[in-house]
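User: I'm curious whether this sequence folds into something compact or stays loose and floppy. Could you predict its structure so I can see for myself?
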Amino acid sequence: MARAAQAPNTGAQAQALPPDLLQVMRPLAGVLRTVRAVLLVMVLLHGIALFLLGQGSLPGLVVMGVVWWGLGWLMQSAAQLGGAQASGVNAATQALQDRLRQVAQQRSGTGLGTGKKKP
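Assistant: Here's the prediction. I'll summarize afterward.
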């Protein structure tokens, strides 16, 4: 019965990204923001060249626009995943801290946890 209660929890943990991976990917979000801004400028310049000067290609403009949109979607998805993962990590950390606090109170006997040994 106890295993049945733990099974869904372990499945959810297996699907979530580890916190280390999220920390590694965090600087990448800044790079993606910069790449997306540069790509937007290129799309605007290409659009001006295409429609005002008649130089360039519409498929190239569409591809750059789709890449710009895709990077935005990726950044938004990563932010939502990171927020959900962070809340799960915070809940797990809070539960661990509560358990450690209970163990410390049991060991001290007084519940004060001053670090002094009893005579």
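Summary: The radius of gyration is 26 Å. The chain has three helices and no strands.
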